[in-house]
TrEMBL record, chain A:
<keyword id="KW-0812">Transmembrane</keyword>
<feature type="transmembrane region" description="Helical">
    <location>
        <begin position="57"/>
        <end position="76"/>
    </location>
</feature>
<protein>
    <submittedName>
        <fullName>Uncharacterized protein</fullName>
    </submittedName>
</protein>
<keyword id="KW-1133">Transmembrane helix</keyword>
<keyword id="KW-0472">Membrane</keyword>
<feature type="transmembrane region" description="Helical">
    <location>
        <begin position="29"/>
        <end position="50"/>
    </location>
</feature>
Automatic annotation (TrEMBL), chain B:
<feature type="transmembrane region" description="Helical">
    <location>
        <begin position="471"/>
        <end position="492"/>
    </location>
</feature>
<feature type="transmembrane region" description="Helical">
    <location>
        <begin position="362"/>
        <end position="383"/>
    </location>
</feature>
<keyword id="KW-0472">Membrane</keyword>
<feature type="transmembrane region" description="Helical">
    <location>
        <begin position="498"/>
        <end position="519"/>
    </location>
</feature>
<keyword id="KW-0812">Transmembrane</keyword>
<feature type="transmembrane region" description="Helical">
    <location>
        <begin position="404"/>
        <end position="427"/>
    </location>
</feature>
<feature type="transmembrane region" description="Helical">
    <location>
        <begin position="12"/>
        <end position="37"/>
    </location>
</feature>
<feature type="transmembrane region" description="Helical">
    <location>
        <begin position="439"/>
        <end position="459"/>
    </location>
</feature>
<feature type="transmembrane region" description="Helical">
    <location>
        <begin position="215"/>
        <end position="241"/>
    </location>
</feature>
Length: 79, 556
């Protein structure tokens, strides 16, 4: 159960990180953040639901670290 | 911040990286592998536990009672039941312990250990000794080797733990200085230009891994420093200040599993009921050990040690021995009030990622690899900046020599780890009766040393990296066919053999091998640090010619 919830939240976080990526930096306009925010909240909520508040929040930060890194390494047009 | 301070911090960041970078890579890389050492690689390496065993609590209770009748009466200070495949045990182990009671006068401890087949419950072996000598003839496999190498570099206590602990502190120092000197964090958060030259690849890679993984690297640095230094500095210092140097008394006061007050009323101890409860406590939890204190007494207590599950820390379940009733569940340091107890409880799982299942371990491994690549990319970046400076601080040959040392030491440890996999299959699944410890230790250090010598002697660094990568890839690619050949275990018969973990390990190694081979095909560094001797001489010659022409032009 924890594994499935974690896997789904990783996918959500990946799309959230891709959404806030604008070229080689973080998006500064509001619309990408409006797309990403529910995905981030969904990812966090899933992890808290599966593992509890403390473990879930801790895991969420680690997942954002990894997924953010992967999103930065994934191909995109950078000036 | 003033630019002069930034320059000073940059100098600190660089020198800390140059001095500790190679060792940090070695410890972080082996740490990333060690995340899966227990139990996954342990199961892969041990034929006895490749098929998962459902340990029957009723059989365990029968064995504990049956063998308790054979051991001396004083060996019931504690009875430990170690589950197969959870840590280093490859069989169901039951240990009857005598704690001496006369430690002040050097009274001996004694342990009688029985090992049982986890499927048939047949006796496999028996050992007796004190706590130190019982494991003297322990046969290391590659999982034990990697886990222990990460912890103390096989230098033992206190030297090894001190080194790894201090490395944790230097990682923290590098992180802090790195964050302060890197002033465009948000602007370059997603900047990664892999195809615009070697220098930019290293620069962007270093920053992306550093910034995104900042919290994780900080966590690993802090927990690593604590785990390394706690036993050799912190606990002895605290014991010296408050417990007249008695470390055991300090640990006993801080941990939450006190000995019961013996009632001296005989009553059989219920073992099956508590074990059954511990085994089914949470679907994601795994029972590691159970410890019976006061066996055969009305006040006996059973502590079961669970890992995994929703909580981060190891969970201890307390059951009454006489009735088998569940009393409470708590963390190992829950006795300590406030946040300190929680922090101490999560220190180990936070370092190794052994909570929440195999996916958390995969995340920890990937982030751990980024911790390893951080000093490596930093070293490459330092070389690039040095070489491309208008007035390089050192000669081209000095930079190239240092580059070759980095390649040999870092690439060598990766290759040395990779060769342990096919070697382990030969050791575990053939009847050659080879000396396990000597071969595991010898082959690792010999291949590592050979790689360093290869890199230092061979003057074409780019070529060395390419072939070191290919050799590593080859070693990983042959693991699966070798496993099929020696054990007959593969994906097509996994449902009948039940070897889910070992088949998964084979496939992951195969995928990593394929990825490394593909990377070796694309490896073309455009950097002066990777020039061969002939290319370097050619470069020096053309530089001389150019400067000669400039002088001639000036004279004319």
């Amino acid at each position: 159960m924890i594994g499935v919830a974690l896997l789904v939240s990783l996918v959500l976080l990946f799309f959230a990180c891709r959404a806030i990526r604008s070229g080689g930096a973080i998006a500064t306009s509001a619309s990408p953040w409006l797309v990403a925010l529910p995905l981030f909240v969904g990812g966090l909520a899933l992890q808290i639901w599966a593992t509890g508040a403390m473990t879930g929040s801790f895991l969420f930060l680690s997942c954002v670290s990894m997924i953010g890194m992967l999103a930065a390494f994934s191909p995109a047009k950078v000036k | 911040m003033k630019s002069i301070n930034i320059k000073k911090l940059y100098a600190i960041h660089s020198w800390v990286g140059i001095i500790t970078g190679i060792l940090l890579f070695v410890v972080a890389f082996t740490g990333a592998v060690a995340v899966f050492a227990r139990p996954e690689l342990k199961i892969w390496a041990s034929p006895e536990i490749r098929t998962p065993a459902q340990v029957d609590p009723i059989q365990v209770e029968r064995l504990v009672h049956e063998y308790a009748a054979m051991v001396p009466d004083n060996h019931f200070d504690a009875i430990t039941i170690a589950m197969p495949g959870m840590r280093s045990a490859t069989a169901l182990e039951i240990r009857y312990e005598y704690h001496g009671h006369d430690h002040e006068n050097g009274g001996p401890d004694s342990v009688i250990q029985y090992q049982f087949d986890p499927h048939s419950y047949e006796l496999l072996g028996e050992k007796q000794g004190d706590f130190e000598t019982l494991f003297d003839d322990y046969q290391y496999d590659m999982a034990d080797f990697i886990a222990n190498f990460h912890a103390d570099l096989h230098l033992g206590r206190p030297v090894g733990l001190l080194i790894t602990g201090l490395l944790g502190l230097t990682l923290l120092a590098s992180l802090v200085t790195g964050v302060i000197i890197h002033r465009k964090i948000l602007r370059q958060l997603f900047t990664f230009r892999p195809f615009k030259g070697f220098s930019l690849l290293m620069n962007d890679g270093h920053k992306v891994m550093g910034v995104w993984g900042m919290l994780f690297h900080g966590l690993i640095g802090f927990t690593g420093a604590f785990l390394g230094l706690a036993l050799v500095i912190l606990v002895p210092a605290a014991a010296y200040v408050s417990y007249q140097g008695d470390m055991e008394a300090l640990i006993e006061d801080f941990t939450s599993t006190p000995d019961p007050v013996i009632a001296h009323i005989e009553q059989p101890t219920q073992i099956a009921k508590p074990l059954q409860h511990a085994l089914s406590y949470h679907p994601d939890s795994k029972l590691r050990t159970a410890r019976i204190l006061g066996y055969g007494d009305a006040n006996a207590v059973i502590y079961s040690n669970l890992i995994g599950g929703p909580q981060m820390h190891t969970l201890i379940l307390e059951h009454q021995g006489a009735s088998g009733e569940f009393v409470q569940a708590f963390g190992n340091y829950s006795k300590i009030e406030g946040v300190s107890g929680i922090v101490l409880d999560i220190m180990f799982p936070a370092h190794f990622g052994n909570f929440g299942g195999v996916l958390v371990k995969a995340i920890w491994t990937l982030l751990g690899l980024s911790t390893a690549l951080l000093p490596l990319s930093g070293l490459m970046l330092w070389l690039e900046r040095g070489l491309n400076a208008s007035q390089p601080k050192y000669s081209l040959q000095t930079y190239q020599r240092f580059n070759r040392l980095v390649i040999g030491a870092c690439g060598g440890v990766v290759l040395a780890t990779a060769q342990l996999f096919p070697l382990q299959l030969v050791l575990s699944f053939t009847n050659l009766n080879l000396a396990n410890n000597q071969l595991v230790f010898g082959s690792f250090f010999a291949s590592w040393l050979l790689c360093i010598m290869w890199a230092l002697v061979r003057f074409d660094a780019a070529h060395t990296v390419k072939w070191m990568t290919r050799l590593t890839a080859g070693l990983l690619l042959i693991v699966m066919p070798l496993d099929v050949l020696l054990t007959g275990s593969h994906l097509l018969n996994v449902l009948s053999t039940g070897h889910y973990v070992s088949v998964a390990v084979d496939w992951v190694l195969f995928a990593i091998g394929g990825l490394l081979w593909w990377l070796s095909l694309r490896w073309k560094p455009n950097s002066a640090a990777f020039l061969s001797t002939a290319e370097t001489s050619q470069l020096a010659l053309s530089a001389q010619l150019t400067s000669g022409r400039v002088v001639e032009e000036k004279q004319s």
